[in-house]
Amino acid sequence: MAGRVSYGLRAPLFDRLSKETDMPVVLEGADLAESIRAALLRLFGSRAYRDVRDYLAAPPSVATYGVPDTVDYTASALSDRQLMARSLEMAVRAFEPRLSDISIEIEPTRDRTRPLAARLTASVRMRGYERPLVFLLNGPEVMLLGAPK
Known about the structure:
Layout: E1 9-10, H1 13-18, E2 26-27, H2 29-44, H3 52-57, H4 78-95, E3 99-108, E4 116-126, E5 129-138, E6 141-144
Antiparallel strand pairs: 1-2, 3-4, 4-5, 5-6
């Protein structure tokens, strides 16, 4: 690897401890996107103890890790979807520092079991490495749309 410029960053400790021993120490491209996807899955799978409005009003902290429960909000109300999107964006900004320019759009669907579809658009900017990423958020799943190279 002599002479090779590496644009990624050292893999997060959680990734290094939870994967096989042949995982790269420096993440870039598809490995970096998968690491971010896994971190988002953990974040969106954790519930913060606050209501959405309280969550948005308070500064983020370790005690508020996760996203607030949105069971009291409705898919048909634009204002409720905007509040949900803002709370998700705030969580990502606070707890996934590798992403910037974060935008989440939530739209209603015709699916009765999953009445909302969300799309997270962001950029990864680290030490000369810059790539846009798009994730589709579907209930308990976080899917990367188009793997970076």
